[in-house]
Specification:
The chain is 42% helix and 20% strand. By secondary structure, the protein is α/β, with parallel strands linked by helices. It folds into two domains: 129 residues, Rossmann fold, CATH 3.40.50.2300; 95 residues, Arc Repressor Mutant, subunit A, CATH 1.10.10. It has a five-stranded parallel β-sheet, with helices on both faces. The protein has a four-stranded antiparallel β-sheet with strand order 6-7-8-9, covered by helices on one side. Strand 4, helix 4 and strand 5 form a beta-alpha-beta unit.
Length: 245
């Protein structure tokens, strides 16, 4: 049976997933798959136990069954949101009609996974949700610090005024070019995909267009001149602002 008393710490980069399901076999299979992927796992048999664990310490993601005794997944989700309105919640259900999925996501869930899907697929989908949540968190932190200066090489970018000082020469940047550099600065050293950058620039629901983004980068690199060497395009993967030094 899944480890019920595992503390809500550890795992991949400190990530813990709370599995809420009243079927022990499903708990066990999912817990094993997630632990093999390096995550820490906590479990709850119903919504009441889930709320107790969320109150005790916030997990990084909650995988929530829809049909459970005492408190169903929809009601549990609503109660979780009273405690924490940012933790990712992924519904996990045998129901697969568009109406069921729409109803679940309308209850402030972040995604929906079918129980019939292979465990490997479920793990990949949960990782995607966690990654988006991490990026959104970094983006929110950046937006709270719009007045900051981004520095690389001989470049100092004034984010608030969309302006760069490049070796003593002032160059105006577009809002999009400034936003791209801001996104890369927050994720400095990491590779940002088209979708990562579009999520930062425009929020959810906007699919990154590779050609459009490539055009923005071409113009940005022209303005940066020799300093453009600090902004790297990893072909077919994304973009990266190199670490300092």
């Amino acid at each position: 049976m899944a480890k019920r008393n595992l503390p809500l710490t550890g795992g991949v980069a400190g990530k813990t997933i709370l599995i809420v399901d009243d079927e022990p076999l499903i708990q066990k299979a999912l817990a094993n798959a997630l632990e093999r992927a390096g995550y820490s796992v906590a479990t709850a048999l119903d919504g009441i136990e889930c709320l107790s664990k969320v109150h005790a310490k916030r997990p990084d993601l909650i995988l929530l069954d829809v049909q459970m005794p005492r408190m169903d997944g929809f009601k549990t989700c609503e109660e979780i949101r009273k405690i924490d309105d940012t933790v990712p919640i992924v519904f996990h259900s045998v129901r697969e009609s568009p109406e069921d999925i729409t109803a679940a996501l309308g209850r402030l869930g972040d995604s929906y996974i079918l129980k019939r899907e292979p465990d490997a697929v479920k793990v990949a989908k949960l990782e995607a949700v966690l990654r988006r949540a991490e990026i959104s968190g970094r983006n929110a932190a950046a937006r709270a610090a719009r007045s900051k200066i981004i520095e690389f090489g001989r470049v100092k970018v004034d984010v608030r005024n969309c302006r760069a000082d490049i070796g003593g020469k002032t160059v105006d940047l577009t809002k999009t070019e400034t936003g791209i550099l801001e996104c890369l600065e927050i994720n400095r050293g990491r590779i940002c995909s088209n979708d990562d950058i579009y999520l930062f620039l425009y929020g959810d629901g906007v699919k990154g267009d590779a050609r459009s983004l490539r055009s923005h980068f071409c113009h940005l690199r022209e303005k940066l001149g020799p300093a453009a060497k600090h902004v790297v395009n990893i072909r077919g993967v994304g973009y990266q602002l190199l670490r300092r030094g």
